[in-house]
Specification:
By secondary structure, the protein is an alpha/beta fold. About 50% of the residues lie in helices and about 15% in strands. Helix 7 (about 155-175) links the parallel strand 4 and strand 5. It contains 7 helices and 5 strands; from the N terminus they run αβααβαβααβαβ. The model has no long low-confidence stretch (mean pLDDT about 85). It is globular. Strands 2-1-3-4-5 form a 5-stranded parallel sheet, sandwiched between helices. Helix 1 (about 1-20) runs parallel beside helix 3, helix 2 (about 40-50) crosses helix 3 and helix 4 (about 80-90) packs parallel to helix 6.
Amino acid sequence: MMSGISRYLGTLMAVLLMGAASLHAGELLVKDGDAIAFLGDSITQAGAESPMGYVRIVTHSFEANGIYITPIHAGISGHKSNDMLNRLDRDVLSKNPDWVTLSCGVNDVWHGANGVPLDAYKANITKIVERCQDAGAKVMILTSTMIGEDEPNANNQRLIAYNDFLRALAKEKKCLLADLNA
């Protein structure tokens, strides 16, 4: 299942980052030499480590189009929004990325009592986006993938509010959005 998710994420992100050029007078958003930080949890970590991982697919998609990016791997298994906020400076901002992709929410919900409640999640994610933008990085927000393949399960129902927030925040902060849970 991870390779299916990775292929989907990689393809969607590459299409958005390259295809969004039509929204900007035919100019590609990602430029040759840009650094892209991939901030996230185990899906992002596996996306950098696996040959079919989404970080590698995005990197190879750019290379196939003559754009050579520097990927910054910032995915750590089990991490939630509070963890990502706590390590943002060390793992992302200190590396001066041109872009940051943010994949966060599954563990905030899935970890139940050890997760992050919606209000705290909103504050954490807003701070991450604002700090990235203040540092000059453009941000792409990814909505969270489903938790298991059972859409009506309780975790996926809780995740709806988290993803709705991400969609609204992307619009408010003028971020690209990869809606993986549409």
